[in-house]
Amino acid sequence: MPVRKGAPALLSAGTLCAALLLTGCAGPAPSAPVPSSSPAAGDGRPAPGPPGVAADDLASAPVPTPRIPGIGPATHALVPDGSTQVLVATGATADSNTATVTLYRRDRAGRWTEAAGPWAAHNALQGWTDDHTAGDLRSPIGVFRIGDAGGLLPDPGSRLPYDQDEEFEISGTGLSGEPLEGSFDHVIAIDYNRVPGRTPLDKERPLGEEKGGGVWIHVDHGGPTQACIALDREALRELLRALDPAAGPVVVMGPKTVLAR
User: Where is the segment annotated Disordered (predicted)?
Assistant: First the structure.
């Protein structure tokens, strides 16, 4: 029997992995005024940073911004006001099957900072689409809730509800002939054409079977997917431990030219 914990929040609507994988997939607030850092008149020394923080640390620290980097106003408007964790999965072009995935968090002032990543990833063989259908070998473009997880292996410390189940076992080969074994050791369900709050294994498709479903973030098997996002095993485990249901996490996914709108 699956082991579940917690109860997630809801978002999204509207791809493909659980069943298909068995055949081969495997509002911004202004930032506070910055005090002048100019040295006093006649003093040629640079102004000091905050106490206990080295200058090199300041130079390399993530810079908070009022908007998620690479995300334009139209896409940003689709991020729920209550979401303070956003996972961005972006490809270089509409046809690319490799992507970069980065987790951002928003502070109380409305500024976004990189929280984890960036990580290299795979997406669907044929790239991206804003009108996904079953079997088109493209990942859906959009903003989707991510609130349910599971896998063949035990929970690695996820705060999301996590279902450990033998049904996550998979074998066979992927679209590039690579072995799929272990791809579902850990997964996070993307709320495209699924009922939120259920195990990723749930097969109910509110938009109909023709619109696909079972779109997950899962372990990278070394090649493109049917529609899912695939991350290195350790990166996925890190992500599972970082996502917080109370932060209303969502994934923003698609080619960079679309997400920049």
Answer: 28-75
Q: What is the 3-state secondary structure (H, E, C) of the chain?
A: CCCCCCCCCCCCCCCECHHHHCCCCCCCCCCCCCCCCCCCCCCCCCCCCCCCCCHHHHHHCCCCECCCCCCCHHHHCCCCCCCCEEEEEEECCCCCCEEEEEEEEECCCCCEEEEEEEEEEECECCCEECCCCCCCCCEECEEEECCEEEECCCCCCCCCCEEECHHHCCCCECCCCCECCCCCCCEEECCCCCCCCCCCCCCCCCCCHHHCECCEEEECCCCCECCCEEECHHHHHHHHHHCCHHHCCEEEEEEHHHHCC
CA angle in degrees (0–180, nearest 5) for 229-231-236: 115
Model pTM? 0.78
pLDDT tens digits, residue range 201-244? 999 999 999 999 999 999 999 999 999 999 999 999 999 999 99
**Half-sphere exposure (CA, 13 Å, Cβ side) for 118?**
11
Count, residues in the chain:
261
What is the number of alpha carbons within 13 Å of residue 122 lying toward its C-beta? 24
Q: Which residue has the tokens 């008149």?
A: 41
